[in-house]
UniProtKB/TrEMBL annotation:
Keywords: Coiled coil
Superkingdom of origin: Bacteria
Designated name of the protein: Transposase
Organism: Dictyobacter halimunensis
Gene3D superfamilies, sorted: Homeodomain-like
InterPro entries on file: Homeodomain-like_sf, Transposase_8
Pfam families: HTH_Tnp_1 (PF01527)
Coiled coil location: 61-88
Signal peptide coordinates: none
Length: 97
């Protein structure tokens, strides 16, 4: 069994397909492919949970996670802009009084 091996989406889908079509058991498929049974089990769960959105790969986020990340960045920028405007407002009030 290789450690740290990266498998592509197609490989994972085919491994899960072998299990789902009952051609082989999880243990047999895992041994045949040279992967841990826990890895194959995780792939089966991920495909069952996420369907076509499963196995997006390293660095590629699910659409919801990417949207959340974008919104957090936008929120932080808005906070910074607000803080700048507050400081300018206070300075402006000090100048006119």
């Amino acid at each position: 069994m290789a450690t740290g091996q990266i498998y592509d989406k197609t490989f994972k889908q085919e491994a899960v397909r072998l299990v789902q079509t009952h051609e082989k058991s999880q243990r047999q498929v895992a041994e045949y492919l040279g992967i841990a049974m826990s890895t194959l089990s995780r792939w089966c769960s991920e495909l069952a949970t996420n369907g076509e959105r499963a196995f997006v790969g390293s660095g590629n986020l699910q659409p919801e996670a990417e949207e959340m990340r974008r919104l957090r960045r936008e929120n932080e920028m808005l906070r910074q802009e607000r803080d700048i405007l507050k400081k300018l407002h206070i300075e402006f009030l000090a100048l006119i009084s």
